[in-house]
Design a protein that fits this description.
By secondary structure, this protein is α/β, with parallel strands linked by helices. The protein is built from 9 helices and 12 strands. Helix 1 packs across helix 2, helix 3 crosses helix 5 and helix 6 runs antiparallel to helix 7.
């Protein structure tokens, strides 16, 4: 299976040299990269959130395998759709799927199922790939697109991923793809997003679900982020750090309706 890039030329450059140049500009750093268990990284167009995503990936090492969990924006497919073999084609490169690791996840729960439809037009996983590839071209991926709800769902998927990582004995990073508050005034977005960010920094997946529900925080990848936290804690995570936060208003200078972007790492 070769999955064709869905948003090249819209969310990021379709021209391969331009894409590589842009991603490398975003990931320039003078700090040493750390080993992370998980991250939260935004998935908007690079003009809006690329600098935040770049700071996340610049701050971490990219291991041999990356599990990417993204929210399902299209509504197509299953509650937790995975692609277990093939290649995600991107401008100028392709990223191979780790069939062994994907199969281990599916073996651990019947919630995660083989599902190409969920991924066909989904951008939330795709926009992460250039940042991963240009730091480590040999990395394999496991793409999971989710639209399930509730902590029981989160816990089941998170536990299945953690068990698969442990049994594989591979060096794995878990990426949760998420933007934060959508289309609210900048000051309100920042206040709401801080509530959600604090739950991630506290490694509190159940609290993250509760606070986003209670305060109507439109964090589109709250489920992926909560799944990542469940897995990361089972894999020994001790702390989390906010790497960067911006809103679209920082780019457009329109502060009436913004989208928030947070970059966080879990170690």
């Amino acid at each position: 299976m070769r999955r064709t890039a869905a948003v090249a030329g819209a969310f990021y450059p379709a021209n391969a040299p331009s894409l590589e140049k842009l991603v490398k500009q975003y990931t320039i750093t003078d700090k040493e990269s750390v080993k992370a268990i998980g991250v939260v990284s935004p998935h908007a167009g690079y003009v809006y959130s690329g600098s935040v995503a770049g700071r996340v990936y610049a701050s971490i090492r990219i291991p041999s395998d990356v599990i990417i969990i993204g929210p399902n924006h299209t509504g197509y497919g299953s509650r937790a759709g995975i692609i277990s073999e093939g290649v995600f084609d991107m401008p100028g490169f392709g990223m191979e799927i780790d069939t062994e690791l994907a199969s281990l996840i599916m073996n651990n729960t019947d919630i995660v199922t083989e599902d190409h439809e969920a991924h066909t037009a989904e951008h939330s996983l795709e926009v992460q790939l250039p940042f991963i590839y240009f730091k480590n071209p040999d990395t394999k991926i496991v793409p999971i697109c989710v639209m399930g709800r509730g902590f029981d769902f989160v816990r089941a998927v998170g536990e299945a991923i953690a068990a698969a990582v442990k049994s594989s004995k591979k060096d794995v990073l878990i990426v949760a793809s998420s933007d934060m508050t959508h289309y609210e005034p900048d000051a309100i977005a920042r206040k709401k997003d801080r509530l959600a960010i604090d739950k991630v920094l506290s490694l509190d997946p159940k609290g993250l679900l509760q606070v986003t529900s209670e305060h109507d925080i439109t964090m589109c990848g709250v489920i992926p982020a909560a799944i990542m936290l469940v897995s990361a804690k089972l894999l020994g995570a001790k702390e989390a750090k906010l790497v960067d936060y911006k809103t679209s208003g920082d780019v457009t200078k329109d502060f009436e309706e913004v989208v928030g972007y947070a970059g966080m790492i879990v170690v």
